[in-house]
Amino acid sequence: MRTVIRNGHIVTQNPSRQIVKGDILVEDGRIAGIGEVRGSADREIDATGDIVIPGLVNTHSHVSMSILKGQIDDLPFDRFLDRGFDIDARRTEGDILAGARQGCMEMLLSGTTTFVDLYYAQDVIARAVEETGIRGILGWAVLDAQYTTQSGTPLDNAKRFHRSHSGRSRVIPALGLQGVYVCSTETFLGAKEYALDNDLLLTFHLSETRKEVVDCKNKEGKRPADYLAGIDFLNDHCLAAHSAWLTMAEIRQLARTGAKVSTCPVSNMKLATGGVAPLPEMFQNGVTVSIGTDGSTTNNCLDMFREMRVLSLLQKSNRWDPTVLPAQQLLDLVTIEGARAIRMEDRIGSIEVGKQADLVIMDGRSANLRPLRPENMISNLVYSACGADVKTVLCDGEVVVEDHRMTTVDQEKVLADGEAAARSSSDDAV
Ligand SMILES: [Zn+2]
Fold first, then answer.
1. What is the pLDDT of residue 169?
2. Ligand 1 centroid to 10 CA: how many Å?
3. What is the pLDDT of residues 7-31, one digit of tens each?
């Protein structure tokens, strides 16, 4: 199968960050040529005047919660958690599936082609991933048995999910750990051993709130990242979400061990947890940083363009320094650095020959993207673009969104199922 995207402005995100005017040849799911592509193809996509970027990478989400958006907003953090746990405990397989389908669709329609998820029931979420055609790094939630509603031992459930779903193209099993507040040293180390033996991503919440830090100091005598370094848990397969309340010593622990970070600016700001992730210090120390939306009860939207913009504004404002996080670096965080955070930078994250064809075509006729020149293209993508500018999306070379519509699933049915599931899972239904 040969697909050619013709005559676009190609933001390659290659090592020299070239922007190329021309064509992209896709063969058997991979990028086979960039520049002028001669000869016919099975499928031709006209991108004249449009911008082609690599598929975006969202490194922290709870995708099936997408149908819960708008249900638990504007609450103090403890009441937010109580309501969230309450709703979660009542969820059925059907509404988790409906939520995952809608969340995957929302991500694809706004240009995300790869996401990291942390939840239980990843076998259900995997179905939504395969149906919609997105790529999911699915971390089964592992925590101590006394805190979970999962039947059986969470780590055993995670191992079973990995064994039953390994070797698939779009579903990539991973291990998720809820966080230091519900995971013992034994749980952390058991998950680490299995992840390293099987080359799996280990993703977890880290230092999201000040309370988490204080409680960990009281229980373990150390701050969370320091504690995880001390038990020899941190390693290069780790992806730590939030990481907002870190000291310089903890940043150096992340750098030394090769652990990566998924910063979640909107979630932290919406819950008013106070900490602003110390990204400039992470960059200075060589920590790989990427961006996550978090779940739809704390964001509430999965649009990575909005996430880039908010992260930039937050960091600049917080440091009184407009030079912090310039546009090119922000685009890096959601493309090649996002890929690095999940240890897939050799396969995705840029438009280069040999990589998987994860490609997003942005509508060059959108008023918010104009005027458009190579000199302001990156700036426009970061500061004025939004998910609605995404016109066509390929994942692994397959066209999954075409002219703003899903090609893989019945969009209206996914939305209708989501509405029905949201009604049945809301507080009013009880
Ligand atoms: Zn989260």
1. 92
2. 33
3. 999 999 999 999 999 999 999 999 9
pTM for the predicted model, two decimal places: 0.97
Q: CA dihedral defined by 116, 118, 122, 126, rounded to 10 degrees?
A: -20
- What is the distance in angstroms between the CA of the first residue and the CA of the last residue of the chain? 51
Q: φ, ψ for residue 412 (rounded to 5)?
A: -65, -35
Domains and CATH numbers, the chain: 2-54+357-406 (2.30.40.10), 56-341 (3.20.20.140)
- Residue 134 CA to ligand 1 center (angstroms) comes to 20
Share of the chain above pLDDT 90, in %: 90
The whole-number pLDDT of residue 64 equals 96
Q: Quick one: the chain helix, strand, coil %, rounded to 5?
A: 40, 25, 35
Q: How far is the CA of 296 from the centre of ligand 1 (A)?
A: 10
3-state class (DSSP) for residue 28: coil
Residue position matching structure tokens 């995100």: 13
Residues with C-beta atoms within 5 A of ion ligand 1: 294
Q: Please, which residues have CB within 8 angstroms of residue 143's CB and are 6 or more apart in sequence?
A: 154, 177, 178, 182, 183, 187
Q: Which residues contact 317 (CB under 8 A, 6 or more apart)?
A: none
* pLDDT range class, residue 428, cuts 50, 70, 90: low
Centre of ligand 1 to C-alpha 215, Å, is 19
Give the distance (Å) from ligand 1 centre to CA of residue 292: 9
CA 208–ligand 1 middle distance (angstroms): 9
Task: Give residue 138 CA to ligand 1 midpoint distance, Å.
Answer: 13
Residue 430: pLDDT over 90: no
Q: How far is CA 387 from the centre of its chain?
A: 14
CA dist 284 and 262 (Å) reads: 16
